[in-house]
């Protein structure tokens, strides 16, 4: 059975993204961060990551804004993230906000291409505590807001852990060395409970071999692979390749429907149009994909400092342990 979310048509890209792996000298002279055992949501009380439900301790949080226009593909480091958010930006296209525990950095110690911060990012990140927030820059009107936000701002203006790749033109060639960011961020928040619950699948749901979520000028198709135990990702109709981890995919995908609205701060794009803002405080509908089935669910986040909970049939909706993708789809 194929399930497809309603939405406007998403154009296919004119071509594929440059395939070359970024080149640069990641600094691996020191360990990226400490990791301390901490009980997560697992029933046994053993150390479990609150972000993935997998065994292990909790490290410091780094969140990286990653480009998703066709020129920026394939991305690097995306498959290593604990949580990947897809968020609408100006023009109806999307960008990613990838969240990493310091104990789960990409093997190549490189993430990107890095792009600029957006208003939606700050509200989303508040549930993580004071994370190290990595971005390439921001609108001048937005910079004072970033300065006041409860994040550790880490851009090329504040940290030297960025480099330009040689195989792509700017602005699609800026990458970050996350271990360098973490060495400069000893006070970054430690991974904590953000509302996710992991466990066996609930009874119910419907078969879902394929599921498509849409933004005005972007689409995300998730196809179930029983062989890998993941929903494999296609972006705008093409497999979402990465330079370092094969095709993107996750055992749990959440399509969280949000009331996208014009920028509360009045921020505008280069054409003078108000940029979109995706609120993540409130409540609404969601579809959770796991183990080849779709569960019509709801989400709730009462305040900016609280986590986001998901419910199905009046009970907490459990995720499959592993990476989680969350698409903030216009509702």
Number of helices: 3
Q: Which value, in Å, is the CA radius of gyration?
A: 18 Å
Number of strands: 24
End-to-end separation: 23 Å
Structural shape? globular
Low-confidence stretches: 1-19, 27-43
The assembly state of the depicted protein chains is single chain
Please give the CATH architecture: 3-Layer(bba) Sandwich
Number of domains: 1
The CATH C-level class name: Alpha Beta
H-E order = EEEEHEHEEEHEEEEEEEEEEEEEEEE
Give the proportion of residues in helices.
Answer: under 10%
CATH T-level topology:
YerB-like fold
CATH superfamily: YerB-like
Helix/strand structural class: mainly beta
User: Strand fraction band?
Assistant: 25-35%
Region (Disordered): 1-50
Organism: Kitasatospora indigofera
Protein name: DUF3048 domain-containing protein
Domain DUF3048: 51-185, 215-326
């Amino acid at each position: 059975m194929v399930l497809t979310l309603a939405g406007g048509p998403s154009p296919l890209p004119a071509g594929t993204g440059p395939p070359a792996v970024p080149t640069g000298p990641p600094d691996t002279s020191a360990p990226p961060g400490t990791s301390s055992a901490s009980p997560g949501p697992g029933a046994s009380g053993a150390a479990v990551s609150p972000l993935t439900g997998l065994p292990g301790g909790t490290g410091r949080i780094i969140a990286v804004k990653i480009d998703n226009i066709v020129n920026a593909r394939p991305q690097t480091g995306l498959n290593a993230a604990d949580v990947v958010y897809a968020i609408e930006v100006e023009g109806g296209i999307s960008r990613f906000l990838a969240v990493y525990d310091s104990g789960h950095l990409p093997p190549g110690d490189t993430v990107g291409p890095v792009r600029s911060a957006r208003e939606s990012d700050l509200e989303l990140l508040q549930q993580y505590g004071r994370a190290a927030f990595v971005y390439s820059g921001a609108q001048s009107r937005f910079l004072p807001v970033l300065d006041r936000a409860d994040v550790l701002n880490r851009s090329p203006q504040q940290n030297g852990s960025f480099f330009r790749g040689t195989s792509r033109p700017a602005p699609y060639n800026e990458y970050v060395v996350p271990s360098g960011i973490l060495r400069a961020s000893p006070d970054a928040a430690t991974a904590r409970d953000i509302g996710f619950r992991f466990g066996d699948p609930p009874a119910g749901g419907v078969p879902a071999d394929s599921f498509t979520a849409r933004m005005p000028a972007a689409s995300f198709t998730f196809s179930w692979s029983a062989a890998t135990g993941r929903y494999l990702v296609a972006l705008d109709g093409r497999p979402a390749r990465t330079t370092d981890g094969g095709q993107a995919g996750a055992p749990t995908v959440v399509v969280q429907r949000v009331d996208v609205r014009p920028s509360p701060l009045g921020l505008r794009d280069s054409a003078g149009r108000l940029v979109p803002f995706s609120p993540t405080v409130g409540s609404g509908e969601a579809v959770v994909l796991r183990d080849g089935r779709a569960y019509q669910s709801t989400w709730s986040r009462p305040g900016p400092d609280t986590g986001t909970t998901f419910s199905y049939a009046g009970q907490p909706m459990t995720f499959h342990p592993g990476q989680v993708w969350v698409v903030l789809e216009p509702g």
